[in-house]
Amino acid sequence: MDGAKTKAHFCDKLMTWRRTKPLSSDGNDFVPKTINLNQIKFIQRVIAQTVTPSWIKSVPRNYGESNAGSIKADEWRTLTTLYLLIALVLLWADHPADEHSARLLGMLDHSMALFQAVILVCRYTMTVERATAYRHLLKAWVEGLTVHHPHTQSHVKRPIIHVAFHIYDFLLLFGPVISWWCFPFERAIGYLQKINTTDRVGGELEGILTKSFLRGATLRRWLRRPDCPDIIKQFKAIFDRAFGQRSEVVGTSPPLAKDGDRAQYMFNGTSFSRASMHLGNSIVLYYPSSSASTPIAGSIEQNLSHGEETSFIIRRQAPLPPGQSDPFLRYHPYFPAQTYSSKMQKHH
User: Which domain of life does the protein's organism represent (predicted)?
Assistant: First the structure.
């Protein structure tokens, strides 16, 4: 058994070494590996261990493996605006100063330029400053592509990069990307595909799809009308939970019959939970006073209801120990992540 393990270990080492060598004698098709298997495993651990609010959609925890399947566009957005950023900063930004670490930091800055550009266009509001910053970051990424990945010099130039620069014009004309991206149309197509057509063709199919879609749209519109009867409005929350997407279910929790602590409080569709119930929904950034200009991180310990009002008791996250650097500060303000201690402060 020990001999078999030794042989397997030797074969694994041999294959790892072979993957770092050219595929042919001239070496023209050799592309150095930026991410190895251990780093892929680290990214998977970041995905699995990162505590997130319930409104952040999940991504494949086996990212990087063939059985992860085809990653959807919205999953790529979550990966490139959250998980990959955390993983790569932790992998490449905190190393001793040497030639290899300088190369990794350069590749990190190059990757972060693209990731920050994605973060900017996915904001719910848009300004000229943000649109200009997007174009600047995209330009930095394009210019650094052949510098940090020299093998791309021989690649065919893709028109999609040229199109990406025109997103700047669309941001100024039409506002945030969320106002005009194609996800709602793709969702409508998915909805139409689920309608039972009873295999009818020749015009009847189109009629069934159109009528079914319009009935649902008309009902939703009617439920949102100000003159909708109150008795029907009371069933709207049930209707949304039964037939709407989770992200569409909005509302505010009603007052408690008796004042006191509550495990969860919903405000305009956002859930605030105490840490003992859902840690991800308890972590918040808040201003400790009306005069404070910088928010601080904390975790909700109690949701206290007093009639129509609800207040939170929040315990602050402890800051980093003195002298310890935060690698995420390098990418402020467009990726405003910050490192705190894993411990909580004693006072609220």
Answer: Eukaryota
Query: Can you give the pTM of this predicted structure?
Result: 0.73
DSSP 278-346: -HHHHEEEE-SSTT--S-EEEEEEEEEEETTEEEEEEEEBPPPPTT---GGGGGTTTS------SSBPS
DSSP letter at 145 equals H
Contact 314, 299 (CB under 8 A): yes
Amino acid at 306: H
Task: Give the residues across from 113 on adjacent strands.
Answer: none
Sequence-distant (≥ 6) Cβ neighbours of residue 137 within 8 angstroms: 113, 114, 116, 117, 120, 334
* Structure confidence at residue 249 (pLDDT): 45
Q: What confidence tens digit (pLDDT) does each residue in 146-195 have? A: 999 888 888 888 899 999 999 999 999 999 998 888 877 777 777 677 76
Write the pLDDT tens digit of every residue in 13-25.
787 777 776 666 5
* Residue extents of the structural domains in the chain: 183-247, 250-331
Contact 304, 261 (CB under 8 A): yes
Rounded distance between C-alpha atoms, residue 42 and residue 88, angstroms: 9
